[in-house]
């Protein structure tokens, strides 16, 4: 989805500065050249991921603007499209009342506002300014704000509207005639919300509260070794890597020969240290020899696929621009990309110690089989969380785990999230809400005594 | 140790229960208890007497037997389990709100976070996991005894390196000036959160996120009008969880579904059995089978509180190109 604007290949001085700043603060606060950003045009009307390479541009309406002015600006900055001698450009501005004007006017007076819509007639004659008039104004170099003023002055009904609907009117016109762009930092929250809003199918309809629950229920934190089946584009893998902060591992496993794509990981601006903790490994590599201690491990019939699976994850041309001046960084750390294969030592370590969490988000897979395959790789007393769009497969899976005594604390939950409009005398839930965030099966793997005896032998 | 501070402390096949460890004794999903293992101690419950000395050397996640042959499971503590077993000195936050707060506040390892009040420390424990290993949680409660109890809990759970508990009236005095401009995220659970907001503004870094939790909509209303002068992206949510119960119903059926083979062989768990009528099926070709069904639990938390999030707006004086 990223309207990714060309490639930046060389790390720059500004990137190095930001990397140094990032060491002190875990969250970068300024955009740097080559970083991944989320651009929010007109309060969420359009959400675009972009990379701040020198040549990157963004098309707003019919105007193409360079993204260069964004470099060095704090995340949270707002920009307006202005016209200059060299064409349209993005100009940073500080919103005067922090864009909360709708609410400001509301305080006090709105409560007593007696206006209503009895005199409004929808006959398309309220606006006396024609589109030709507006075009003329534009040609004469009127700013968006000027056009909006003219529209209000020429609207016969504007004065009859309530203060609240006047504000709504202004916002509507601002979006059209004075578009603005908000520079946002890509994080689990913003990336998950963006996909859920714009392309929910690409991330398995994973809602931000559901994703948050998966991470909590699976006890993901520093030094976790998280086993994951990520068929949601890398959103889950990235969210876990963000919580690991360069410790532990997130191991995205897959069945067959082709790793699941984890491209979304590249939008997080992870450092090399964090990227090196994101690995991909075929299930067969993780499970061999485990079957002696675990009765439920199912011998996989996919051995044939293994030969071809040694070269995982072909990276896109668009490289993850990593922090740091390449000359100053030891060769080993240079441009570590997420999704490498784990070293044999790491795999051996996991076989001996088990993973400390398991999260599955595989909307298209048979979840019951997946879980019985993967649970034996999990350390005793390690928690797991399984996401699915349908209830029945999770119910069947839960029952199977109960009867086979593989896990305790089993629970199926369905998160519910409602947003509210909070305004004086006008507080109510949003008229539109998402009614379904999927189901989660969570629990804790236990040590069946037989299995423990097996280890002791 | 609830939050590992190095990789040797995390849960693994090799981790065995040691003298002095905190374990969660699991009877049922709704009956659990936190117990500190002491070699001479015993645990007594409806299943009989359990000797701690029998537990030592067993892996976490083991089933252990009582003198009478009853059993429980011994689980490694996690912030989620802790939320279910901690002693309620105040109303606490539960997993749905907690997990959402951590994500929406964008807390990652290394972050420095403020919280007030500490309450029973349910959220604080999850905040500590999120900032570990290098970040820190500064939590404040005006109730001296409550702060002391929370501090004891954190110490017992091995979290004192990540959490500092202080006694302070944040509504009255604000957060300590020493944290000015150094805070990534702040969480308020106060009766009058709007009183603490001006102080939170001074503490937060640019683009830092604040969350206020209030049970009543009138509190939210006032909080939001105060937030509007310095914050952007002000959003209020309610987040709840619906849980499901799963049963196996015995019925006569003509087909055995593939995924049910195993369940049928082992049989239903005793507590979850339910007979269903088998009308409409041909008894001659019927084969005994089972089918697993799920329905929402009838009782649930209907409301916990409203979560209001806001991002500290950029001020004019924050020049774009300076660091």
Describe this structure as you would to a colleague.
Chain A: One of its GO terms (cellular component) is tRNA (m1A) methyltransferase complex. Chain A: One of its GO terms (biological process) is tRNA methylation. Chain A: Belongs to the TRM6/GCD10 family. Chain A: Substrate-binding subunit of tRNA (adenine-N1-)-methyltransferase, which catalyzes the formation of N1-methyladenine at position 58 (m1A58) in initiator methionyl-tRNA. Chain A: Keywords: Methyltransferase, Nucleus, Transferase, tRNA processing. Chain A is an alpha/beta fold. Chain A has two domains: 125 residues, no CATH class; 218 residues, Rossmann fold (3-Layer(aba) Sandwich), CATH 3.40.50. Helices cover 30% and strands 20% of the residues of chain A. Chain A has an eight-stranded mixed sheet with strand order 10-9-8-11-12-15-13-14, sandwiched between helices. Chain A has a five-stranded antiparallel sheet with strand order 2-1-7-5-6, covered by helices on one side. In chain A, strands 3-4 form a two-stranded antiparallel ribbon. In chain A, a hairpin with a 6-residue loop joins strand 13 and strand 14. In chain A, helix 4 crosses helix 5. The radius of gyration of chain A is 27 Å and the shape is elongated. Chain B has 323 residues and is α/β, with parallel strands linked by helices. Chain B has two domains: 62 residues, Roll (Vcp-like ATPase, Chain A, domain 2); 170 residues, Vaccinia Virus protein VP39 (Rossmann fold). Helices cover 22% and strands 33% of the residues of chain B. Chain B has nine helices and 15 strands. Chain B is globular and about 65 Å long. The C terminus of chain B is likely disordered. The chains are: A alpha/beta (457), B alpha/beta (323). At the A-B interface, helix 7, helix 8, helix 14, strand 13 and strand 15 of A face strand 6, helix 3, helix 4, strand 11 and helix 8 of B.
